[in-house]
Design a protein that fits this description.
Radius of gyration: 16 Å
Structural class: mainly alpha
Distance between the termini: 32 Å
Number of strands: 0
CATH class: Mainly Alpha
Number of domains: 1
Order of helices and strands: HHHHHHHHHH
Number of helices: 10
Strand content: under 5%
Largest sheet: none
CATH architecture: Orthogonal Bundle
Length: about 190
C-alpha cells in the first residue's frame, strides 16, 4: 500500500479532522524514527497513518482496531502491517515484538499531549515548543487529564528511549508538518 492509498483510506473512513491530524502526527513521528534507525521511512509511516482509521466506525475498546483489520485485509494491506496496527492496542493481545510496533505504541499517545501543550501556548505553535514545556504540563494532572502519562512512560521505556528525549523527538517530527496540523501559530518557521 502506498502512502497516497493509505491517506485515501483514512479520508474515506475518518471525517473528524482532529483525528486525521492525530494520525498524521503519529505518521510523522514514525517516519522520524525510521530515519533515526535506518529503516524504510515509507514502511514505518504507514502504521502511524492508518492506526486509528476505523475509530469512527468502531469507537469502542472491543471494536477498535480489531474490527478494522478485515477492512485493511480486503484493501490488500499486508498482514505484517495489519498486525502492526493491531499491536497498538493492549487488548488485542498482539505482541509488540518489533521495533516498529514499539515505536507505534510509543508515538501514539504522546502526540496528543504535545498537541495539547502547543495549543495552550501564547504562540499556538510547535516551532517554539520544547520538551521542557511538555514536562511542566505533564506534572499538572488537571491538564489533559485523559492523557495516560503512565502508559506514555511505559511505552517510551519499552521502546528504549527516555521519555523526555522521546518527547523532543516527537516535537521535532511534528514540526515538519506543523502547517498541516494547524500548529504554525503566530511564528514563522
Amino acid at each position: 500500500m502506498t502512502r497516497e492509498e493509505a491517506l485515501a483510506l483514512v479520508r474515506e473512513f475518518v471525517k473528524n479532522e482532529g483525528l486525521v491530524r492525530h494520525m498524521l502526527c503519529v505518521e510523522a513521528a514514525m517516519r522520524f524514527y525510521a530515519e533515526k534507525f535506518g529503516e524504510d521511512v515509507e514502511t514505518w509511516g504507514l502504521p502511524g497513518l492508518l492506526h486509528d482509521f476505523d475509530w469512527e466506525i468502531h469507537p469502542t475498546l472491543e471494536g477498535h482496531p480489531a474490527e478494522g483489520a478485515p477492512i485493511l485485509r480486503e484493501r490488500g494491506v499486508s498482514e505484517e502491517l495489519v498486525q502492526d496496527i493491531l499491536s497498538h492496542a493492549d487488548h488485542t493481545g498482539i505482541p509488540r515484538d518489533t521495533l516498529r510496533r514499539k515505536a507505534l505504541y510509543a508515538c501514539d499517545e504522546i502526540t496528543g499531549l504535545v498537541t495539547a501543550v502547543a495549543l495552550v501556548r501564547p504562540s499556538r505553535s510547535l516551532y517554539d515548543l520544547e520538551a521542557s514545556s511538555v514536562k511542566k504540563k505533564w506534572k499538572d494532572k488537571a491538564f489533559a487529564a485523559g492523557a495516560n502519562r503512565a502508559e506514555m512512560e511505559q511505552a517510551a521505556k519499552e521502546f528504549g528511549v527516555d521519555i523526555w528525549e522521546h518527547t523532543a523527538n516527537v516535537i521535532t517530527a511534528m514540526r515538519k508538518i506543523a502547517p498541516e496540523l494547524g500548529l504554525v501559530g503566530n511564528i514563522q518557521s
